[in-house]
Write a structure and sequence with these properties.
single chain, 383 residues, 15 strands, 27% helix, 22% strand, globular
Length: 383
């Protein structure tokens, strides 16, 4: 089997033999976490013979029960429990199932993992992750400041602590439609003050204050997944045009592309931030062909498995960088770039889990042996 747990290495390992822990294994069809897709990128990569350890937050996160990909899986305390609880749990997991690299995949956990990076390094765990200053520089309400001195356009944005703005904003030069966004996740296009007020209260209840309002830009949606080297350089990128969306605006289908301007704007943003680790850049291309930056997410996107299909496997590039190796550049700027013309279509698939396994996860925070008793056909790899 690929996923075999071994003792701690005496010498640094080749990237293909690393033990990697990934977070974010929730598989909600309309808004999946990236963790399972990151793990698939590594599991499916040629020559990978390391181990994958899954970390997630909810007993019903589907990736926790994928015995084909993950050698072991564990529950983590929710971010609201605090950094000490998180670090204590990671220490316990690392003691029981040692791992060399951690790849966080959820926005809400990034600041905690960034601050814990020195303590994780002391345990021998590598994390390529932005600093808290980098994270703050790409916050939704900081995008105009970030882009002011760059050849990158971004729509006006404000953070709100009350809903009165939606009745006063037009007098301040704002117009409907607008986009209302939660601090970490979720967004809704609203077309009047009533819709905006309802969305404000829903997002504030889910993610807290402030709630973000951004001027709506009409056009075609493009995303870029990339990995920054922490020194202003881009290790690799995959550009994608969205072809089908969920009700939450997430990509249900998309096609890899090559677009020189989009690639250059990605380099400009990564260089300005000095970004370390994965990121996703969300852009809107208007009717005049001008790109507008909507968001920068500080992790791999849920559609990251497209990078494997486009022959620019970004999670593998991350591991190669941590091991001091580099992939073969495919553009003049020295970055690996995904092959265009590859389309992904997401689909949902049921996974059968015994009640004993669910109970074991709920009681002990880890996958038990009960799942292994299921018939082999039930344990088929989940997309």
């Amino acid at each position: 089997m690929k996923n075999r747990i071994s003792a701690l290495p005496a010498q640094p390992l080749h990237w293909s033999r690393l033990r990697i822990a990934v977070t974010g294994l929730n598989n909600r069809p309309d808004n999946p976490g990236p963790g399972h897709a990151v793990a698939r990128c590594l599991h499916e990569s040629e020559g990978f013979c390391g181990s994958l350890i899954g970390l997630s937050y909810d007993t019903l996160d589907g990736g926790l029960y994928d015995t084909d990909i993950f050698a072991a899986t564990y529950l983590l305390p929710y971010p609201s429990a605090g950094e000490e609880a998180l670090f204590s749990r990671l220490q316990e997991v690392h003691r029981r199932t040692p791992f060399d690299v951690l790849i966080p995949n959820l926005d809400a956990e990034m600041r905690a993992f960034s601050r814990l990076q020195p303590r994780l390094a002391a345990l021998g765990i590598q994390v390529l992750i932005p600093t808290t200053a980098m994270l703050e520089s790409r916050d939704k309400d900081k995008l105009p400041d970030l882009c002011r001195h760059l050849p990158v356009a971004t729509p006006p944005i404000r953070h709100l602590t009350h809903a009165g703005f939606f009745h006063e904003g037009e007098a301040q030069g704002w117009s409907y439609p607008m986009v209302i966004k939660g601090r970490f996740y979720d967004a809704q296009v609203v077309r009047n003050a009533t819709e905006a007020t309802t969305a404000f209260h829903r997002l504030a209840a889910a993610w807290g204050l402030p709630v973000i309002v951004q001027q709506y830009v009409s056009g075609e949606e493009f995303n870029v997944a990339a990995v920054g080297d922490g020194k202003g350089g881009v290790l690799g990128m995959v550009m994608m045009r969205k072809r089908a969306l969920t009700d939450k605006g997430k990509a249900w289908a998309g096609t890899s592309i090559l677009h020189p301007e989009l690639a250059q704007q990605t380099r400009e943003l990564v260089a300005a931030l000095g970004w370390a680790g994965p990121l996703e850049i969300e852009m809107m291309c208007d009717a005049q062909g001008r790109f507008h930056l909507l968001e920068i997410n500080p992790r791999f996107p849920a559609w990251i498995f497209l990078s494997h299909g486009a022959q620019c496997n970004l999670p593998v590039l991350l591991l190669q960088h941590l091991c001091g190796a580099t992939g073969k550049p495919s553009d003049a700027a020295g970055a690996a770039v995904g092959k265009p013309g590859i389309t992904f279509i997401r689909y949902a698939q049921e996974r059968f889990v015994s009640i004993d396994s669910l109970e074991h996860m709920a009681l002990f925070g880890e996958r038990g042996d009960a799942v292994d008793a299921l018939p082999p056909a039930v344990n088929a790899r989940q997309a």
